[in-house]
User: What shape does this take?
Amino acid sequence: MVRMVLAAVALVVGLQVPGWAQAPGPGLPTTSPDAAGFSADGLNRIDAFFEREIKQNRVPGAVVGIVRDGAVVYLKAFGYQDKPAGRPMKVDSIFGLASMTKPMTAVGVLSLTEQGRLPLYSPVSDYLPGFAAMRVAVKGSPTQTEPQQAPIRIQDLLRHSSGLTYGGRPDSGSEVSALYPRGDSLPGMANSAVFVDAVTKLPLAYQPGTVFEYGISFDVLAAVIEKVTGKTLGGHLAETIWQPLGMADTGFHIDPSKRDRVAQPFPTNPLDGQPQSIITITQDVKFECGGGCAIGTVPDYLRFGQMLLNGGELDGHRVVSPATVALMTSDHLGTTVENRVAAIEPHRSGYGFGLGVAVRTQPGLAAVPGSVGEYTWNGAYGTGFFVDPKQKLVVVFGTAAPGALRKFYREQVQDLVYGAMTTGR
Assistant: This one.
């Protein structure tokens, strides 16, 4: 009984105290809302929003972090990390990052490009020969195929123009997706070799370099990185990104000593009552897939986002060059690759896609405010981030919401953050 009372008190405190000075943070300086061009009342609307969502049992809890001009403006935990256990959410609670793994994998690839070890225009088959023999479905048919007109290149993997897709996604543009593995099945595959062997037996959904088709491209990049470096993907990312930036809670495996910090979803989806879970926090990952297998915290990812905003450096540690970050965060679809980004993220009309991130190319069309040049991506388990270079802004949020509500929170958090700003750039 005492434990339950203490947990309830912690929940109330987490909902009501000002959120811009909570520790442990991302190791960045802190500032007041007014000094950073935010309204305290506006930031309180974030509190009110998540209070309503938690009270209605739509989400167990959340963490939201906002950094502007390199200083923490707002960092706050709401609700429960594990509601059945009575554990309140904490700023350093650990989330299944899902597809927020992709931007980190992209930086891992680009670090090798800078070393002359992985040119972006090189064919994937230079590293994984089986991809050269993959055929392409004709008009989406799994049974009628034709040869590749051009090879799948590393750049195609990074911008999702490889012709590879995901299984089980209603937003896929091809019937071939029914043959492909689901994203949540990949962590359980024995290793990258098993994954590659399975995938190269399938037809491509589109000719390489022609259509943005969200899929398993970044999981193939994990296998490429292993081939080039002789290390696991986690080993390469730890050496290149996580250790230099002090992202101590990010990785592919949850240390047993940190297991009680993992954010848990409701056992059933609050919208339809169906069972739900997050595979990367319920079982140890076997295949360190580059598209969705990492875990981490909001403070850690704020450091990653600030590194990108700084042009590839943070606290004296350079990860990649400013030119490389500029390349990564520019649109790579242009007029030659069919843009289906809004088919995946309907509120992101007016966005193209760079190397691992969606990139805003127009001030209008999108259903959310932001600046041209803003870049972003999200995770299927309820996490998201965006960086707005014009506004010197980094935002990261975490929820354990693997159902349809995750897309609702992506839109709402962006509305709330920009709605709280009082000064622009």
